[in-house]
Fold:
Amino acid sequence: MTVITIPAPIPAFRRMESKPGRAQTFATNVRAVTVGVKDVQGWASGVSAPDWQGDTGDAHDHATTRFAIRLDSAEAALDRVVTAADRFEDRLTVLNVLRPRIDKRRVAVNRDGETLRIEVEATTGQDIDAVALADLERRGEALLERATAVNDDITDWVTRYLDAEADFIAALAGVDTVAEGERAADDPGRVDVDALTDRFNRLKRDPESLADWWAGLTRAQRQALVTEDPRLVGNTGGIPVVDRDDANRAALHSDLDYLGEREDDGQLSGAEKRALENAEHIRTGLEKFKDKLDLQTGRELAHVLVYQPGIHSGDGAVAISFGNPDLADHVSVNVPGLTSDASSTEGNLDKTLDLHNAAVGENSGSVASVYWLDYDAPSGNPINPFDPLGQLDFGGVAFTDKADDGGERFSDFIDGLRASDQGEQAHVTAIGHSYGSTAVGHALEDGLDVDDAILIGSPGQPVSSADALTDADVWVGSKDYDPVSLLGSGDRGGLGALGHDPADDDFGGVRFETGDGSLRVEDLLGNHTSYFEGDSLDNMAHIVTDNDAEVTQQPHRGDPGGGYLTLDELVVASTAASGGEFVWDHGGEWAYETGKDGVEVVGEVGGWLLEHSRFGGIL
Amino acid sequence: MAVTLAVPYAVVLGIKGKWDEAADGLDGNWRRLHKASTDGFSPEVAAAVEAFREPWVDEIKAAAQQAQGYSDEITVFQGRVLIADLEQAERLRSLMPWVHRDAAITESVVVWP
Structure:
């Protein structure tokens, strides 16, 4: 009798009761608490007796010194828990990736085992030739090997999971009394964070060196730096994206706690009030997407790469990525334009996520899509040179200076991402919308390290050709009924205060299909703000994922088939398309009948646009 | 009898504000720690988190109250203008930065009309 061994079905194995996303949230909370405690402890120790760790009578009598010592114990305990929570999260993240892979193999082995069992049962009592019998035997042995491997991997996985929990529990238990915190504070092996901070500051202008140095730190050293100065760690290029995210989230929540308390006490200064508002906008934007998880890791899909709520004339700075740029094959970074500030975070994240989903849908590798606003986007109106609210030196130094300065900051940001990138260098695309395209143009002119550049709704570029601008591939999206895109100088004029129209036939690059938009005057602004939709979005997704052959094109302005209206012609035509009355019914500011002077017409268009864009941050 | 503490008024005012800020900061900290959810953790981990959290919420809260108390003490001292006795002056001096640890405390006789 021949015996064919079929492995017993492998039962479902332990589920992850502790989730990586939950561990991330807990770690963020403890980091935020630690940041706050360190802020206070840092102040108190700064005005304490220099050798306050000693026990001189003077120091003992100094209340501030005693207070600093008290908080130092809390700081030491929290530091340990932050490090443990960070490790716990990392281990859960790995286990979260492994578990479905093992389970998939388990299910396959059980399915194949069941199939084999049915086949074997069907042969019982039957005459079966030797070849078929040998085949059944061979399949049974192979199945047994697979089942053994799966069982081993399950055992290993369960062991690692239980170890991860046990280590985290032990770390918590090690500092769950104040006395243990005091001992942790006196531990001679405690991280010397001051020395690390000094070293960090010496390296921060050199992202690659910083990245190398950071990679050589222990987890405890890295976490101590994150909570000591999260604003430094979170906003410095070269630091891994996950660590920047951890630091910036800690700073965000710490700010919300501190400024919230000050607000409740009625003690906020004007600058603090603005910073709190910005922080709340950013929190709102993040909370909207917090349930969107990276399917590979279980961490939140959103990563905070820049968080500075109080800079840029109070507008704040923020950069958030969907996906991890350090790990992605394709990275896009989009820069918004005029009037953008922290209050427009949520709307701009919607657009960024639309692009991210479209790019992921290309199935051309992993993708990270970044929204970047870390420059002082002007708050005025680019179209109206006489706009009293504009606060601009339109066509003058101040206005282009902001694009130039923004471009420099953008270059630094991209250099930082390049430095922290892991594995093969990512394919990087810079996307500039409206005034953001001008800032990107200035960065390109100065050697921005990207593979592709997309300029959409651009009011002008600093040079007259793509070749003069950059070695990267240049792609232009300009709807002919987008008035902002008609501001650049070209073969039929254009104000040109911000530079050249990249859609012009002499500019070069590739003008991709966006459609023209609606001619009706009430839709003009929508034309400018809808590049992250339809054919335009699809084409950007192709470019971002390096599927250049899929991009559909439209003729440059001035090329055959590329006829277009100038800005003043567009105003007249769109007003007529809307029946004229519309204009006068909405403020009477339009110059349809009296606007013989192009500048005046332009000015009136600008006023209307500003009124309709101020709250959206769309230019 | 009255006591004079030789610390500039601006320093006293500034340090009162700093103690107040410290209290606000720590209040935000203990509240966040107190609210940190243990959902999504196994029961064993959740229990360990709770055991860690409880004493440190209490400790940070106590430190916040201490800081607020110091700020309030300075307010009281300010309100009195004249520090009544040596002990109070030393107490106030201990709440000032270390560089003022040797600020002179002098007693003077107040001659009431």
User: Anything to note?
Assistant: Residues 2-108 of chain B form one domain. Chain B touches chain A through 46 residues (CB under 8 Å). The longest helix of chain B spans residues 43-80. Strands of chain B lie at 2-5, 105-108.
